[in-house]
Amino acid sequence: MTRWLVTGAGGMLGRDLIAVLADAPGAEPTAAARADLDVTDPAAVDAAVAGHDIVVNAAAWTDVDGAEADEAAATRVNGEGARCLALACARHGVPLLQVSTDYVFPGDATAPYAEDAPTAPVNAYGRSKLAGERAVLELLPERGYVVRTAWLYGAHGRNFVSTMLTLAGQRETLDVVDDQLGQPTWTRSLALRLTQLGAAALAGHAPAGVYHGTASGRTTWYGLARAAFALHGLDPERVRPTTSEKFVRPARRPSYSVLGHDRWAAAGLGPMPDWHTELSAAIPGLSAALSAPRAAR
């Protein structure tokens, strides 16, 4: 059996990771939610890592706007937490898969960001996640894997797709930003890819370093909302395009978040599926989660 430790196991991605690993032959997952493990506590992290064969760090401060108000707190989780895990993994000789973000890039590109493209975050959240990336790559040059993802949605947490479908029942029309470009990524699909990468790492088939775990293709938030409406059986014409200037928020958002996927070939893996294909597969589960009684969620 391969013993997996998943931190942040109570989150949207973490819950899908545990579910995917539970179905994976030979995998024995340990779920460490925030209440179970403080990733900024070195002694607790070392004790948790001991006895495992591989670690996936899905624990994160994900409040992008909140990070602008308290960058130090965000960096403790996203930066120092990753460093604690990397130190423990180095001590116990196990690989670490660190989930990161497209926000490490400035968002001013016109072609997909390669895995080795220069980083330059434009907000506190991106800086905090970049600190975590650097710690993992520095402390685990042979066993550290950084998987950048973006625009996540899933059945087990608040996200853009579920918010749009909820608002559809409350408003006749929705104005959605059409000047930010990215790759909507289903957490279940990312969980499967992380499991595949971890297996390849343990088998010695995947070189350490940076990978981009986002769906193929690209769209805007407006395009994503229209697609979600259509797949949910709603009229997509109820979604209207607008600009980022109409929705001013504390943290600046990159306008271009399309990531390249060339490095998967080094691990013997192809790119992840197209975003619309993923969304089509995800919508039934999201719809069921939204219609479930609140007490059952």
Annotate the secondary structure layout:
Blueprint: E1 2-7, H1 12-23, E2 27-32, H2 42-49, E3 54-57, H3 64-69, H4 71-92, E4 96-101, H5 124-139, E5 144-149, E6 152-153, H6 160-168, E7 174-177, E8 181-182, E9 185-186, H7 187-202, E10 209-212, E11 219-220, H8 221-231, E12 239-242, H9 275-291
Parallel strand pairs: 1-2, 1-3, 3-4, 4-5, 5-10, 6-9, 7-12
Antiparallel strand pairs: 8-11
Helix pairs in contact: 1-7, 2-4, 4-5, 6-8, 8-9
How helix-rich are the residues, as a percent range?
A: 25-40%
CATH fold description: Rossmann fold
> What share of the residues does DSSP label as strand, in percent?
15-25%
The secondary-structure element order is: EHEHEHHEHEEHEEEHEEHEH
Overall structural domain count: 1
CATH class identity: Alpha Beta
Question: Total number of helical segments?
Answer: 9
CATH architecture label: 3-Layer(aba) Sandwich
**How does the overall form come out from the CA principal axes?**
globular
Radius of gyration: 19 Å
Major β-sheet strand ordering: 2-1-3-4-5-10
Largest beta-sheet characterization: 6 strands, parallel
Counting helices, strands and paired strands, the structural category is alpha/beta
Termini separation (Å)? 31 Å
Low-confidence stretches: none
CATH superfamily: NAD(P)-binding Rossmann-like Domain
How many DSSP E strands? 12
Taking all residues together, what is the mean pLDDT?
96
